[in-house]
Design a protein that fits this description.
1% strand, 2 strands, 10 helices
């Protein structure tokens, strides 16, 4: 790789890691465009580009979640019971869908994009115009079944899109469980490793991946993944620290802007 690539990869990783720590979204929206470009340059088929992009994005998303979880653990803020009760059902769904994608041709990205776009539009509107969730009179809703439903939806999004699941979890934690923004982002970030672990293992162990001219394990291309992962690991904690000094309103606006970028990207994929 060129020296510009070695500079760009950690920089993109750092940006995605910071956004993951700040908003609890995993950073996949930052990683995917660059990964798609890199794998396209290798001359892979469209199907293989999708698989390689998903695999490497999920690896980076897992790294961001682990870095955030470690930071929460050190601060004594890790809610491990909620993480397991939401993350384990989501992980099961994520693994099942990833297995089905790798062993079938049923997956339709355009169809998924339409459904995902509708959800993003609703969640973005809620972030902009919804009521604050950190008012003294409003307490988080403790309904395990609703929490499990959020985990199932997030697990499906991880497997189908390569995003971290936070684009689903954070808005739903706010809308369905009435969590304050900071609590929603912190919980989302710590659940992400569970959602991404099973599909990542599947991609690493896959024997069907096209052989690349660079080092790889299954669908993970190490010369691309490792420099980005280094930036992610360092800056996820910095993003979490920054979130403590930003108002909920500002965090909601930033999340809405990020969601809008995803909406534009998804619309482009549908219409192109």
């Amino acid at each position: 790789m060129s020296w510009m690539a070695w500079l760009l990869l950690p920089l993109v990783g750092a940006t995605g890691g910071f956004m993951a720590g700040l908003l609890g979204v995993g950073g996949g929206i930052i990683f995917i465009p660059l990964l798609t470009y890199l794998f396209t340059r290798l001359g892979l088929s469209h199907e293989e580009i999708v698989r390689f992009t998903l695999a490497n994005s999920i690896l980076l998303v897992v790294v961001s979640g682990l870095a955030g979880t470690w930071k929460q653990h050190r601060l004594g803020e890790w809610q491990w019971r909620k993480v397991l009760s939401i993350g384990i059902p989501g992980a099961v769904v994520s693994y099942a869908i990833t297995y089905a994608i790798q062993h079938g041709d049923w997956y339709s990205k355009p169809r998924f994009n339409v459904v995902f776009l509708l959800f993003l539009a609703v969640s973005t509107a809620n972030m902009v115009w919804g009521k604050k969730s950190d008012t003294p009179s409003q307490k988080p809703v403790e309904k395990p079944i609703l929490a499990i439903m959020v985990g199932l939806l997030a697990g499906a999004v991880v497997a189908l899109s390569g995003l971290g699941g936070g684009m689903v979890m954070v808005p739903l934690f706010r809308m369905m469980l009435k969590m304050p923004m900071r609590q929603a982002t912190a919980l989302s970030l710590s659940i992400i490793p569970l959602l991404g672990a099973s599909p990542l293992i599947g991609y690493l162990l896959s024997q069907n991946a096209t052989h690349l001219p660079i080092a790889q394990t299954g669908y993970v291309a190490w010369p691309y993944a490792l420099p980005m992962a280094a930036g992610v690991a360092v800056f996820a904690g910095i993003g979490m620290k920054a979130a403590k000094h930003i108002s909920e309103t500002t965090l909601r606006i930033i999340f809405a802007i990020l969601s809008s970028i995803v909406i534009v990207k998804t619309l482009y994929e549908i219409l192109s």
